[in-house]
UniProtKB/TrEMBL annotation:
Entry annotated with the keyword Cell inner membrane: no
Organism of provenance: Streptomyces smyrnaeus
Family classification: Belongs to the CofC family.
Swiss-Prot/TrEMBL catalytic activity: phosphoenolpyruvate + GTP + H(+) = enolpyruvoyl-2-diphospho-5'-guanosine + diphosphate
Domain of life according to the entry: Bacteria
Gene Ontology molecular function: phospholactate guanylyltransferase activity
Chain ranges of the MobA-like NTP transferase domain: 46-140
Protein name: Phosphoenolpyruvate guanylyltransferase
Function: Guanylyltransferase that catalyzes the activation of phosphoenolpyruvate (PEP) as enolpyruvoyl-2-diphospho-5'-guanosine, via the condensation of PEP with GTP. It is involved in the biosynthesis of coenzyme F420, a hydride carrier cofactor.
Length: 223
């Protein structure tokens, strides 16, 4: 930055990552259970997601909303802050609760919901998504299938107002959030719900937890 540039305070983000109990996670991935147990896959995806998120330069912290004691311990070990769900309320309540927990500690923080199933996540691509989001009060990134959402953002004065679940892209757009105009961020969009998604994530390159778990039994094309 040159000497005559105005001083700009960069936006830094607290991410909120939701993770349901591992024993119930990733039911649509049943086809991949031949390669590794589903609870272990769900944990490895979350570990790779959280580790990459914490390596992103504009991320100041990660809150993981989960009632799973094993996952909470493993993700705390990576540097995340686990908080339990509110009793019986589901995904969007968990995200709103996590955003409130983040702002209880850091009142001025921008917050972003991030799916826990992004094992190919690259910190530099997440940084480009978040830097683009710093220009909008609320914004979102559609998933690779163009139906759901992988990231929903809110600047410090905005409320997150999450509407995840199924066709959430249209719901987030209807809520007034801006669809982020950012290209070539496949690693931030590639969520893994099905065996086909897992193949796509493996083609992008997954993180160390997922690749170690699948070592020797990688699901290749058409298998
Ligand atoms: N804390 C919390 N996280 C949730 C809850 N429901 C879903 N999630 C998480 O939100 C994300 C999207 O959830 P889903 O697509 O419903 O579940 P999934 O485990 O990814 O996949 P399926 O079981 O195949 O539907 C995942 O990271 C889940 O772990 C909830 O009630 N509480
Ligand atoms: C919850 C969502 O994700 P998925 O169902 O694809 O995991 C969503 O995209 O809103």
């Amino acid at each position: 930055m040159g000497p005559m540039q105005p001083h700009v305070t960069p936006v830094t983000w607290t991410l909120v990552v939701p993770l349901k109990p591992l024993s119930r996670a990733k039911s649509r991935l049943a086809g991949a259970a031949a390669y590794a147990p589903l609870p272990e896959l769900a944990l490895a995806f979350a570990q790779d997601t959280v580790r990459a998120a914490l390596e992103c330069r504009v991320v100041r912290g990660v809150v993981v909303v989960t009632d799973d004691a094993l996952a909470a311990g493993e993700l705390r070990a990576l540097g995340a802050r686990p908080v339990p769900d509110l009793p019986g309320d589901g995904l969007n309540a968990a995200l709103a609760h996590g955003a409130a927990a983040a702002r209880a500690v850091e009142p001025g923080t921008a917050v972003a919901a991030l799916n826990a199933d992004l094992p190919a996540l690259r910190p530099a691509e997440l940084e480009r998504v978040l830097n683009t989001a710093s220009g909008f009060s609320r914004a979102f990134l559609p998933d690779a299938a163009e139906i759901g959402t992988t990231v929903l953002t809110a600047l410090p004065r905005a409320t997150l107002s999450p509407a995840f679940g199924g066709p959430s892209r249209a719901r987030h757009r209807a809520s007034g959030a801006v669809e982020l105009p950012v290209a070539e961020v496949s690693s931030v969009r590639q969520d893994v719900d099905t065996t086909e998604d897992l193949r796509a994530a493996l083609a992008l390159g997954v993180g160390g937890f997922t690749s170690a778990l699948l070592a020797g039994s990688l699901p290749g094309p058409g298998r």
